[in-house]
Amino acid sequence: MNQMTMKQQNVEPGKEAPLVLQMNGVSKIIKGKSIVDKLSFDIRKGEIVGLLGPNGAGKTTTIRMMTGLIRMSEGDVMIQGHSIRNDFKRAIAHIGAIIENPEFYPYMTGLDNLKQYQRMTDEVNDERINEVVQLVGLQEAMNKKVKAYSLGMRQRLGIAQALLQRPKLLILDEPTNGLDPAGIREMREYMRTIAEVEGISILISSHMLAEIEQICHRAVVIQNGKLVTVTKLGEEQEAAAQVKLTIRVDLLQSAIDIVEGTEIAQLNGMDSTRAELTVTLLDSNVPALVTALGIGGVGIYRITELKQSLEEDFLKWTGGNLIA
Ligand SMILES: Nc1ncnc2c1ncn2[C@@H]1O[C@H](COP(=O)(O)OP(=O)(O)OP(=O)(O)O)[C@@H](O)[C@H]1O
């Protein structure tokens, strides 16, 4: 790995990073039917974002509009500040995308396929080919013919090809479709590495919550072509998350008075026979609440978290249509 790529490892995905993609009120109407309806969301530098929705939600149509494969009926997509509608060449230059299955020459080796592809757009740059091959872990397979590759290896070769031109945004439509669990795990690991090492943003579409939850920093959830929600995932979600706790105490009424007197927690309910109260508050405010109860002379026997999983959230949002 050269020095430049080492430095790029420190890219922090998040609010301060520059915008790479902006979807601004994008719609698609086909034969009078609304397929995608005023979709807006952003992707920032280094972020891995999941486009999540049940089959038929409009993911592929959205991606096809983003990459200029089909026209938008309304709205615009900005890539690195360039409009897909009005400045297509400059906008598309920043995108690497795999939308259907990547096509290769089966009787050529992986290496020759990459060289052939690079020759079409640029001069062959062996150093860049080596870098992308390492990023997707295909070093061993480079001199084998593509017809001997597994589906997962073909997918990774496709990603390597998409990375050759150093795109700012990599778009992958259902990249783990048809892969076995080991292939899915590998793909997940390579995604993270690519985003970190190359400092690029990745948009992954999927109908599987578990997949998006494990790879992505944020999920854009769509249903019937409409935005349902944009949510943070993983560590970012935990930091901003509300928790629901059941607290068993010795003095229930005192505990309730304290909770109601603070601005950090909401009382959801109580069970006087068990001397328990249920509260909702930000995870980061739990120590303050425990301290307040202690200072108020309330003894705590037990604190239990009532888990509402992301899966339950998604099922609620999409009416039970997502495969977890
Ligand atoms: N050219 C078209 N003509 C008519 N209907 C279309 C066309 N393209 C897409 N659709 C419809 O639009 C809806 C969204 O399709 P799209 O392929 O974008 O969904 P998706 O979320 O990618 O689903 P999947 O995961 O099944 O591919 C579907 O109901 C589909 O039948």
Topology (SSEs and partners):
Elements: H1 3-8, E1 19-30, E2 33-44, E3 48-52, H2 59-66, E4 74-79, E5 82-83, H3 88-92, E6 95-98, H4 110-121, H5 126-135, H6 151-163, E7 169-173, H7 181-198, E8 201-206, H8 209-215, E9 218-223, E10 226-232, H9 234-240, E11 242-249, H10 252-261, E12 265-271, E13 276-282, H11 286-295, E14 300-305, H12 310-318
Parallel strand pairs: 3-8, 3-9, 6-7, 7-8
Antiparallel strand pairs: 1-2, 1-4, 4-5, 9-10, 11-13, 11-14, 12-13
Helix pairs in contact: 5-6
The structure holds adenosine-5'-triphosphate (ATP).
Task: Give a quick set of tags describing it.
12 helices, 6-stranded mixed beta sheet, about 325 residues, Alpha-Beta Plaits, disordered N terminus, 4-stranded antiparallel beta sheet, alpha/beta, Rossmann fold, single chain, binds adenosine-5'-triphosphate
Can you offer a commentary on this structure?
This protein has 324 residues and is an alpha/beta fold. It has 2 domains: 3-237, 3-Layer(aba) Sandwich (Rossmann fold); 241-308, Alpha-Beta Plaits (2-Layer Sandwich), CATH 3.30.70. The chain is built from 12 helices and 14 strands. The protein has helices at residues 3-8, 59-66, 88-92, 110-121, 126-135, 151-163, 181-198, 209-215, 234-240, 252-261, 286-295, 310-318, and strands spanning 19-30, 33-44, 48-52, 74-79, 82-83, 95-98, 169-173, 201-206, 218-223, 226-232, 242-249, 265-271, 276-282, 300-305. The strands form 3 sheets. A 6-stranded mixed β-sheet has the order 6-7-8-3-9-10, sandwiched between helices. Helix 5 crosses helix 6. The longest helix is centred in the middle third of the chain and has 18 residues, at 181-198. The two termini are 37 Å apart. Adenosine-5'-triphosphate binds next to helix 2.
